Amino acid sequence: MNKSSLVIVYHREPHEEAVVDGRLVYRANKSPNGIVPTLKSFFNRIEPGRGAWVAWKIYQPEQGVDFERVIHVEDSNGGYDVSRLPLTAEQVESFYHITSKEALWPILHSFPRLFQYDNVDWETFREVNRMFAEAAAAQVADDGLVWIHDYNLWLVPGYLRHLKPNVRIAFFHHTPFPGPDIFNVLPWRSEIVASLLDCDLVGFHIPRYAKNFAAVVQGLKAAKIAEIDDVEEGLAPPAMALSEPEVPVRLSKGDRTIRLGVTPVGTDPYLIERLLDTEESLALQKQLSDELGGRRLLMAVGRTDYTKGMIESLLAFERLLKRRPELIGEVKLLVTSVRAASTMKVYETTQREIEALVGRINGRFSKLDWTPVVLFSSAIPFERLVAHYRIADICLTTPLRDGLNLVAKEFVASKRGRVGVLVLSEFAGCAVELPQALLTNPYSNRAMDRALDQALDMPIGEARQRMEQMSRVIRRYDVARWAEQTAQQFASIAQDRSKEAESAAA
Most CB atoms closer than 10 Å: which of 130, 204, 235, 289? Predict the structure, then answer.
């Protein structure tokens, strides 16, 4: 088997399976949006056939592994191998739904009071991470690059470094990364950080998270900050909750150098424009506008998660209707709160709270010809979602903490010359890119109320100017730029290796 020069390690498979004429086929994911298509595009940057992907696939122990462990996929990104790691439903429940979501997730998002320790089986978390590392090691060339994604695979770099000492290892955090006071709540902090220090590159969305990581490893492992740089212009607005004027870009630990990358993921505004220009989308946009009948549409879109601020947005909308009764019958809020796995109790509680709030608002304010809130508990297909964004007046994106938040960027991309107002939490990572949004503090009722009033009453000229400025930003920092910057970081760690080899030879 030819070894791969690039192996991407991510929990999701990069395709969907379907049976056509009795034959199993592999298709691209239905949604053209999201991180998976972007990651697959990196296979276009390497020699054909030299790419691989590692993900899990559930199997039934009593039936044994009834699928091919490694398959070859041909698609628009060229040919690449997909290594499917057989995990039982119990392993996934323990490693992902319990340890990752109930123990690690609340710490990453600065909710230590929700940290759950009692149900954690750390040995299973180690075992699954070790299996991912072994699968990656089996695919990668000795001098190749393994690119690992997100916190549920924190231990993979350490195991992989032991298995393949010369391999290049990059890691990207899609979540926030907290400072030492919060991170050090984790009983496994030393083991996690030791593994991450086996990387050549650790990536984050914004400078604050890189700075927090550097502070953690300084305290726990006595790593040193070897280089600090000014934050690039587009990520350094002053006086914001997540603002940072400087960022560490290189750490040293013993004889090793670890680069820190800051590259906020972008959306694809050109894809969104193409979707909006289709006959189906134009017809849907007209239908939605007709159904609104001149009413103003607000949107709040996200997964069911206590970090996403959906409850805070609903409460703010309820207070709005109470505070300004002239808006009753004149505004409508569309909420999508996509349900999490039913076994994840903390998210089930959040979903029940959201549904109860929607019921209370509708029960209190509805009229015969008007319901104030429409709730979708399953995902709206992306091509339909952007049509809703296109005709919406206001997007409420108010997470209590978020690594980045692409909803905000997708809303801006969908406006394309139309007026709309983005109400954005100052604790969303993308707030440092979009200071022209109407920034708010979701922990403060007064701040949320003030933002909603300002959004509804904003002069058209001001709304247009803000949207035009944000549109320029998302086109500059789009997903193609993210990919290009990441590729440059990969090239930098290759150069680091060459310099280290030259120094050793001398």
Answer: 204
